[in-house]
Specification:
The chain is mostly helical. Helices cover 63% and strands 6% of the residues. Among the domains are: 14-208, Rossmann fold, CATH 3.40.50.300; 214-293; 303-376, Winged helix-like DNA-binding domain superfamily/Winged helix DNA-binding domain (Arc Repressor Mutant, subunit A). A six-stranded parallel sheet has the order 3-5-6-7-4-8. The protein has a two-stranded antiparallel sheet with strand order 1-2. It has a two-stranded antiparallel ribbon with strand order 9-10. The radius of gyration is 37 Å and the shape is elongated. Residues 82-211 form the ORC1/DEAH AAA+ ATPase domain. Pfam families: AAA_22 (PF13401), TPR_12 (PF13424). This is ATP-binding protein.
Amino acid sequence: MNAGPPESEASGPRLEGHAHDESRVYMAGRDLHQTVHISAVPETIPALRTLPRDVAAFTGREHELRQLLRTATPGRSVVIHTVDGMPGVGKTTLATHAAHRLAERYPDGQLYVRLHAHTPGQRPADPADVLAALLTGIGVRPQQLPDGLEARAALWRDRLAGRRMVIVMDDAENADQVEPLLPGSEGCLAIITSRRRLAALDGAVPLSLTVMPPDDAAALFIRLTHRTVPDTGPERDAVAEAVRLCGHLPLAIALLAARLAHHPAWSIAEYTADFAAARDRLGELEAGDRAVAAAFELSYRALPADRQRFLRRLGLHPGPDIDAYAAAALGGVPIAEARRHLGALYTHHLVEEPARGRYRLHDLIREYARSLAEQDPAADRVRAVDRLFAYYQHTAEAADRHYADARRPESPVTAEPPAEAPQLAGRSQALAWMRAERVNLLSCTRYAVAEGRQSDVVRFALAVHVFFRLEGPWHEGMSLLGAGISAARRLGDRRGEANALWGLGWMHRVTGDYAAAVERAEQALSLYRSLEERLGEANTLRDLGRVRRMTGNHSAAADLAEQALAVYRSLDDRLGEANSLWDLAWARRMTGEYDQSAARAEQALALYRSLGSRLGEANALWDLGWARRLTGDLPAAVDLTGQALALYRSLPDRLGEANALWSLAECKRLTGDHQVAAVLGERALELYRALDVRLGEAHTLRDLGRVRRLTGDLEAAAEMTERALELFRALGDRLGEAEVLNSKGALLAETAGPDEALAQHRQALRIARQVNSPLEEARALEGAARCAVRTGALSTARAGLREAVAIYRRIGAAEAASAGARLASLEGGRSGDAG
């Protein structure tokens, strides 16, 4: 926002006299009682103009300035504004600029008073001494000054009665210092700046300044460097980076720009690169007696010793923000004390509170606090980080137990549990805590990697990877688990390595990298078996089965699910048992064994409900709905899938929500409600893409292509079908490829003719038989029969359709009725409906 006086850190405290007579200056504090001879008490108060010069480079702060100008209306009762903010944020400049803008409204004077809450070598000004300076400044003889604060305050209010004056009180310590200095008459305006929030000042209108918006910060930098910078290009990018490195703090920007202004031959890009590379960035931000670090130092020194130590500990936090529990762990203090410290630092603008209960240090204050912490004994710093990590790990593990969909072998915990941690009552609270701390947990993990804290890397990776499975982004979860695997290997922690490999295999599977998923799962399985860790073995068998299912090997998938089920039952792990039953239901459905699939899903559903597993219940309901849709019971399918969707949303589980939306879209397509099917499908597609679930994206694109074909948008249908085919082939999902080829055949029958359509159905038939999918086999046969009808090959059509109908009827598929009717029409001698 400014160059000009960097708040109140410039020169000593004073009340300045007439602008044209610099001898009429009265010093507050220890110099206050120096007198200036005045011949007589004037009958009227002279118009005083003691404001510092206005800033020619005033930039930005338009909203804040309007707020000050709008409420400053003479004739109203005295208006009091407080302008608070962190050191260097531009409080003094804004207050001074506003007072200059208001000069015509307050013709009887514009006074400027320094209160020295943060002036080097000065104590905060005594309000009685300030009143003495103010009173003598308006003509009261020194020998006529009354004794005592109350008497001087009363005389001050009396002398201002009926006058219209604006008074800027800069760098106030607290409300007690300011209260006696306030005018009492209508028509006066007081603007008070402070690094503290003066909440105790009754009737004041607060205005808290934050750092500048990026565009305003860039404009200020350019203006102060006296450069012309294009709107785009490397120089403009360098300006944006420079002000970002300054944390968009006006004082820091002014100091950095001032140095560049004196070196016109320097390139902004090179100058910014040098500043970015500087080891002591705060040291770079000083000019003469103005420095960012010096401004912070004054606020730091005003804190009691225990609060100084607390601020230094906050500087060790590797993440962007912190709550009271983490701050208590880092500071080694009780939670109540941590809250008091945070509240006081917030009052002093040394921390910000961007959201209720979340605190953040400005980047430069963080750097300053960290530099102070470096002067503490190394052992103290290590213990502080140990406490912080133990708190985060303990609470993340507690959260994980609320939403994990399977038990896993636990690695031994070596760290001491935290003294205090939030009580997470259920899944919703656990997920809310993880969402709030996600970036901090990642930051702590990166810090642990950089510092070689291997056991912390393993523990963080295992504590948070299930959360990333649920909410993504999965690439971050995969990176985290990769770091955990490497750290476990360095430690020789085979159980931790196996757990991380299992988790990484899961993520490879859902992102469609099936080869990597198999490799990781087999590595985990080998480790678990060498450790005789039966629970880990069962978990990995189950995941291997799911990969086999995705790649079309349904018999292997069923066999692996049966193996996992046997191990879970031997361990009396009912959640694992339910999960394996669900996997079996899915595998049986893929091979057309719909009755067996439904029976396994119902067993799983009963177990999930007995365990109170709402996620498991949602999964089983969704699976049952899918089975009912395939057998043609669309009302039941819609009901079951709707129940699953409601559960997924209540959890919340975005992947489950996407799956349910996709299934509902299919139900609506089959009932002929194509408009609703398109809306549901598009929403599912958005979720899949946000989660980077390429398999879900492929299925949804295929089905949206079917909807577009049925509504006559053949161009969009072709585009979606081709994209789905590309995805299935890239994923190695043979069954998905067969499904799309059948869809493509139906589309080409309408656009390119039966010969090209027939080629697609024949490819689909070959793949369906390879992966043992009777449903897609029958669909391919039926599609080929339709093409044969179009070309007049009726005997070929009847033979193919008979085979399709036999399969449909054997597996109980919904298509049995329509295909049977078409076959009867053909065998009755009529060509039937070729569509």
